[in-house]
Amino acid sequence: VGSPWDRGTLTAPSPQDWEQRQEEDTLLIERILLLLRNVLHVPPDPAEEQGVDGDASVHDRVLWALHISGMDDLLKFLASAQTEQQWALHVLEIISLMFRDQSPEELAALGQGQAATEHGEDTRELEALRQRELAEKRARAIQRPSRHSRFGGSYVLQGLKAIGDRDVIFHKGLHNLKSYSHDLGKEPRRVPRRRQAA
Length: 198
What we know:
disordered N terminus; 198 residues; elongated; DNA binding; 6 helices; Timeless_N; mainly alpha; two-stranded antiparallel ribbon
């Protein structure tokens, strides 16, 4: 079957795997961690890394490659799993080498400054969208007529008699007056199918 570490991609072993792990698997894990530590331990050479200002250094590119490959998640697993405590010092050394060139003050200020800047930009964008939406709502309110369009009023139709010799009261709009009949609003009488005309 083999170890989960020697497949094409590295994955975190499941909790029961440590009991079934063979000696060669343990050696492979240790070698991988030592290789990672040694790669991160290489000192930077500014003369060799002549790049543009703001360009990522070789160390930063190695860290990005570790992130893309998922190795950082594997390191977090090894650091937090109770069953993998034997690797704690290797993982601690790797993490300290990952943050080698940064001071804690810079890292803390970077996170807060970036978050505050992004928060300020988001707040300004939301306020601009809110003002635009309020302006559109006011413009629609001005264009809207004061009464709703379903109001038709009530009219007395002189010359047409309703029940009891009274004039007909029409509750629809005047544009519907042409289609007025005494049967308006009544359901048509249903004729059974066998009595319908062919």
